[in-house]
């Protein structure tokens, strides 16, 4: 079993720990070894907290042996996008501006995970301040996609996508304001959830967009995603956007029974609105067929165009980004990377009229989404319109084309949206399905995603990543 510990899911590991067949120390040690061997090829970590992880694992081991088992995350390793604060551990946002920034307090989500007994492995690569990228003029290099290291991991939770896919951590937390959890989940073949806005506290996460910021889990399976969401969801009076709602039992909702669920297929997104790769289109259509075969009622629906959502989301984000970074833009402009400047400077030129009109447009777009949800339980789209691009092909503006506004639709709407792997291209690159729901009906999107996942074989396929030692050995054997 030791050789496969790096591919354990949270649920599998938790069951082994609960039966006394696996110690948190053994699991943590194996993952730290895996990080040491593989991450030099992927650059998914900015900081590895090995000593702290082992200390936490030993504490978890002792507590569990004494009968104080806290639940399914006790002794489970996780990692964090490096915009989420950790007390005494630097949180850099991958920026020269924050290269020596050491918070004195954990983010709210970190406190919830450590309270559940989880073990922090380290901080993960992001694009600078969760904007821009991939960039080569920052203190750290961009993360690489483990399915093909020449390729983009997708948006700003980039290290999280690479690390979970490569078996360096069973869970990671990212942030999402326009697709930055779902986009890397799509390109790395994972499950990535943008929860309903307000469901998970943002306190201690470096802000990006006050209107859209969310913290969400990235895992290998939907069940794992539900387990992490259960731990991090809940009201936080310190977050002015936090919602005081009853938190359901997310894992319990994963019954596999989706008979009678009404699924709206937003086919026009990939058929006509956004230029979409043929294999991506086929993957979504096959997924819709699978859901129909499982008893869901699938029919076409129409939303506003992705271009409308993208224009609304980007105008609001530009203005709010400027509000976050205005002082450093005035006094330390040269310390930002080129990609980040490209995205921050327009905010300085976004006027109050533009911002207010975009917020008015958002209200109208939400009204139109809500009207569609009167007839369906969930919506189905592609997560992204393209396969993972080559990193060298990613220009300053090309990340927007690689998303096509499909993610931004549900950022604007504010409801939950989850990315789920729905197959692979002929080149072996992941395809991804996006399932979106009404605000605070995160259970519905997880339920449908889990049923689809259980009915398909995609979770059995892992990236063919070689370790550093294997590559060096191959070089030697071939002279």
Which class in CATH terms? Alpha Beta
CATH fold topology: Amidase signature (AS) enzymes
What is the CA-atom radius of gyration, in angstroms? 21 Å
CATH architecture label name: Alpha-Beta Complex
**Quick one: how many beta strands?**
11
Uncertain ranges: 471-479
User: How much beta, percentage-wise?
Assistant: 5-15%
Q: Separation of termini?
A: 34 Å
Write a structural description.
The protein is an alpha/beta fold. The protein has a single domain (26-477), classed as Amidase signature (AS) enzymes, CATH 3.90.1300. The chain is 41% helix and 13% strand. The chain has helices at 10-18, 24-42, 50-65, 108-115, 158-165, 182-188, 222-232, 267-273, 278-293, 306-331, 338-348, 352-372, 398-403, 408-413, 442-454, 468-477; strands spanning 45-48, 77-81, 119-124, 171-176, 191-194, 214-219, 262-265, 297-300, 378-382, 417-424, 430-437. The protein is globular and about 55 Å long. The relative contact order is 0.13.
Which keywords apply here?
479 residues, alpha/beta, Amidase signature (AS) enzymes, eleven-stranded mixed sheet, 16 helices, 11 strands, disordered C terminus
